[in-house]
Amino acid sequence: MASLMDELLLTMDGEAEQYEKLISLNGKKKDSIIYKKLDVLEDITVKEQAIADTLRVLEKKRLSILNSIGQVMGHDGEQVTVSWMIDNLANQPVQQKKLSQAKDKLVKVADDAQVLNFQTQNLLRQALEMVEFDITLIKSAKQAPQTSNYGRNAETTGNILGNRGFDAKQ
């Protein structure tokens, strides 16, 4: 059981380290979005994907370890969580404290990463809105306004001004 507990703590520490890596990449990601450095953003995205893959592996490992601990403790088939482990380690205060600290650290860095991801998502949304605005502005600049020429029925003829600017002869 002690080796399983040590392995669980190491796995949770590994997860926290991966989340910290994500957090450290976020500053570079924001700068690359703001300054439109798409090559840097692409590199960061590749790194983030690798970290996400590692996090998935560590999460599966953590769940497997928790399942093994549940079997050792006679709770086979039950959903064993870290919180459940903390509650059931009352007779082992040292292990309980270590596990509680590891859980608190993991929850904090995961929450921090989630907040930063939300901020980055909003930044990307704003960047896309600016691109859309720029496209609309460019399209409208190429279209000339209709003239105020009226036909027989007192409706505009729909003639469009040319791109020549002035029609003055010199």
TrEMBL record:
Swiss-Prot/TrEMBL keywords: Bacterial flagellum biogenesis, Cell projection, Cilium, Flagellum
Chain intervals for the UniProt region annotation (Disordered): 147-170
InterPro entries according to UniProt: FlgN-like (IPR007809), FlgN-like_sf (IPR036679)
Domain of life (superkingdom): Bacteria
The keyword Hydrolase appears for this protein: no
Comp. bias regions, Polar residues: 147-160
GO biological process: one example: bacterial-type flagellum assembly
Protein's name in the database: Flagellar protein FlgN
